[in-house]
Amino acid sequence: MIVTRRLDAGIPDDVVTAADILRGGGVVALPTETVYGLAADASNGEAVRRIFTIKGRPRNHPLIVHVADVSFAEHLASDWTPAADVLARRFWPGPLSILVDKNENVPDDVTGGRPSVVVRIPAVDATVRLLRILHEMGSIGVAAPSANKFGAVSPTTAAHVIEDLGGLVDAVLDGGRCTVGVESTIVDCRSDQAVLLREGGITFEQIVDELGIHELNVVRSLDLEGSDDSSRAVAPGMLTSHYAPRARVEVFERDDELSRRHRQLEVMGIRCVLLPHPSDITEYSRDLYASMRSCDSPETDVILALLPEPKGLGAAVRDRLRKAAAPR
Ligand code: TXA
Ligand code: MG
User: Fold this and answer.
1) What is the pTM of this model?
2) How far apart are CA 22 and CA 255, in angstroms?
3) Ligand 1 center from residue 170 Cα (angstroms)
């Protein structure tokens, strides 16, 4: 066990301290607008390997590299494509991660030996300032998966990080509650037909519109399954069961189905709770993981959840709920 320092993203000296810890090979949980990330200096192989040990994550699962501006992202790519450039300039800083072919600047530990790298600029000022400090010290950026144990629910507050990883990480930079609440959208931009690998804070519709202006297009990876291009449909680490609390999760398309199941389980003496489902999808997304955590008490056997409509941010919320409900 180590003592996890609590740092405040609102205090400039604390941001510098967090950067120093990272530069010294430490591991620090950082706030982003999506979820908290478990960060290490991406230039330091040993620090990056610590992330996998702390999370209990298989070493071949690649990590996202977070950078402070577009030029640092380009610096990691062997081919910074038109699709990558269009999306980066429109949506960064923001909840969008871009997959491109990597170059020799990216160590293999970060990408699990893959020839590609995923990059993004997070939309939290303190974190971008920290990234700038690290770049000035010669770092390519920070590698950061979500700051939870492998397969568990992602953290959206510093308190969640402490619950899961207190005593395992060197510090947590507290930036308050994450505003988006689900992980970033991941888009494979290696060709003029981009592929959406993970639904997230930037919606499929927004990506279609932006690429359309530039005569580029995007498909969902699911829609490639069974096609000639099916190899691009595989996204490592996007396991079917994921984001799962301890209690079993059941999901429903309609309110009446949910109520019927609720009554049925109660008759059987099974202890259920309903996951709150705000009608405002931004709120549903922002509070999703915090709600899952608070529903997941030892007194709960089953969490019942209503799926939002599959449009806009609803697609990401549905994806996370269905993964939480998948067989383990
Ligand atoms: O919002 C987010 O994306 C958060 C914050 C911290 O930035 N990060 C996050 O990281 O969700 P993680 O590691 O939990 O999820 C990243 C996903 C994984 O499924 C991983 O397999 C995929 O991105 N990924 C990363 N690099 C990849 C690569 N080179 N090729 C294919 N998939 C990649
Ligand atoms: Mg994760």
Assistant:
1) 0.96
2) 47
3) 22
